[in-house]
Amino acid sequence: MSKTINDLRDAMFETMTALKEGKITIEQAKAVSEIGQVIINSAKVEVDYIRANNGGESSFIDAVGNDNLPPGITGVTRHRLVG
């Protein structure tokens, strides 16, 4: 089963709720937070790789395609700075 950024976000909010309700300790919440940060750092490397290769997809971060654009918009224009 593939995990996505949405799953991570859900887990972080569940951890926050559990901490508020006293169901987990601060140490346990910190451990979850540290693991979440490792996952985010890994995703950043993945995004950098995709950018370096001028595109691609990620199984962790859901792609937003043209189907999700507002009515009347038919595509996306990307501006790149060349230095």
Report on this structure.
With 83 residues, the chain is an all-alpha fold. 52% of the residues lie in helices and 0% in strands. It is built from two helices and no strands. The protein has helices at 5-20, 26-52. Helix 1 packs antiparallel against helix 2.
Index terms:
83 residues, mainly alpha, 2 helices, 0% strand
The dominant shape is elongated
Distance between the termini: 41 Å
* Percentage of residues assigned to helices: 40-55%
- Indicate the proportion of strand residues: under 5%
Low-confidence stretches: none
| Main pleated-sheet profile | none
> H/E element string?
HH
Estimated radius of gyration: 18 Å
SS class: mainly alpha
For the secondary structure, the number of strands is 0
pLDDT average, as an integer? Answer: 80
Number of separate helices: 2
Task: Give the SSE layout.
Elements: H1 5-20, H2 26-52
Short description:
Helix content is about 50%, strand content about 0%. With about 80 residues, it is an all-alpha fold. The mean pLDDT is about 80.
